[in-house]
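Structure tokens please, single chain.
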Amino acid sequence: MRRRGMLLIVALLVLGVALLAGMGLMTSQVSNYRGVHSAEDAALALCLAQAGLEDARLKLERDALFPPHGDGNLVDPDDGAKPQEQSLFTYSEDMFWDAKRIGCYRVSIDSSFAAPYQFVRVTSNGLVGPAEAPTAQRVIKVDLDISTDRPNTTFQPLKVEDLSGL
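Here you go.
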């Protein structure tokens, strides 16, 4: 009788160890899945930021009036009389896949360097997930050469900075 009782205790201990090992394996798989999912979101955020840069570059090349520089009726807060033009223009676009929003990109174009230095600074922020709480983000800043001394060429990047997930 003692052997049967001992066998039952050993069987319960073996099942307990197997249960703990199984739960540990499941927990590690969940963390692996989360890691893969966050890497996927980070790659998608990079793609969205690059899409925003390309969108801005094409708009700058194809439309001489882009970005709009304001109407010149803004009053300078320092002296109250001199009109100023808008040098920073920001826009965003939501991206969808099969009618489901996957994220957006936000693009800022700083044209304050255009007149003296012949370049514009474009900053693109790719955001994945809901707008209120994105799951991943990537910021890329590019200085685009807008000089017109080379005919039939596209705006070339002078400097590219990947600001990562800031």
